[in-house]
Amino acid sequence: MLYVLEDTINGILIGSIYGLTALGLTVIFGVLKVINFAHGSLLMVGMYTAYWAVVLTGIHPYLALIIVAPVMYFFGYYLQNIIIKPIFKAEKDVREPITVIIVTTGVWYVLDNLSLLIFGPQYRTLQDNPLRGKMLEFAGMMLSIPKFWGFVIAIVTAAAVYWFFQKTRMGRAIRATSLDRESASLMGINQYRIYNVAFGIGTAIAGIAGVTLVPFYNVFPSVGVLFDIKGFIIVVLGGLGSIGGAILGGIIVGVIESVGPQFMAATWTEAIVYGLFLMVLFVKPSGLFGVKYDW
Fold first, then answer.
1. Phi-psi region of 190 (alpha: psi -120 to 50; beta: other; left: phi over 0)
2. Count of C-beta atoms within a 10 Å radius of residue 138
3. Each residue of 32-60: pLDDT tens digit?
4. CA–CA dist 119, 138 (Å, integer)
5. To bridge 215 with a disulfide, which of 1, 70, 146, 248 should be the other Cys (CB 3.0-4.6 Å)?
6. What DSSP assignment string belongs to 173-184?
């Protein structure tokens, strides 16, 4: 029984990091109304940025947040401004432009192959990592310290994003644009700037997730694909546009993956996750925590 409890707690810890990777995806969808297929690649860019920030400066892996978050924000801001905004202008009468999905898929392939060209296919890991393999003993259970701090960062980030959208002027402008872009424009809100900011925030969150992964996970060009798939599943489970749903959906997936192997083959846990994903699509397409409105 103790092992099941230990696996459950560790599942919650890693699941919160899964949820953090999905949080950026759901923020972008909540405003732009498009699925960003390049989100996993943006996570990969964040992981490489965190890795090289630590290697080149020697700072603590989590202090890389002060470098990665702003760098990824501006990367996402200008990626949206230069590549995606022209499509929104060309299809301004379409609420969910399908062309954007095609373009983000192209960005996915470009970023993955560009990283492969620059960094090579090697798996990279932090050599002088003070956190790798560190465990915390609690009530007879062994808990991963890097995953624990990842959990803390995920919860703080989700709370900060929620506060930003609810309490700040820019946050209210973003929510207004997500609900009705035309009405928001009539009220003097520059919808294209809002798109840039929202995409920048979503990309920064992906970078923060990358920082939480680097202390215990290898960095390689296609690493984003693994988390991209989980991210889409989690967003559907939690509810499109739901901030809390992203974290809770990630925890559900993490607990299933962690506890499941205690009772069945590990491959069956993946089947359970996908089965739950399909069931939610059929029974409650808005997601477990989805609401009528996006924010």
1. beta
2. 11
3. 777 788 999 999 999 999 999 999 998 98
4. 39
5. 146
6. HHHHHHH-HHHH
Between the alpha carbon of residue 151 and those of residues 155, 157, 158, the distances in Å are: 6, 10, 11
Task: Give the Cα separation of 141 and 80 in Å (integer).
Answer: 45
- Parse the chain into domains and list their residue ranges: 2-283
Q: What is the pLDDT of residue 295?
A: 45
Structure tokens at 126: 């932090």
Report how far Cα 63 is from the mean position of its chain's Cα atoms. Answer: 19
**220-245 pLDDT, tens per residue?**
999 998 888 888 889 888 887 788 88
Would you identify the CATH topology of the domain 2-283? ABC transporter involved in vitamin B12 uptake, BtuC (1.10.3470)
DSSP letter (8 states) at residue 80: I
Query: What pLDDT is attached to residue 283?
Result: 84
User: pTM for this structure?
Assistant: 0.91
Q: How far is CA 234 from CA 23, 124, 182, in A?
A: 9, 27, 30
CB-CB contact of 51 with 233 (8 Å):
no
| Residue that has been written with the tokens 């943006």 in this structure | 42
How many helices and strands, by DSSP H and E, does the chain display? 12, 2
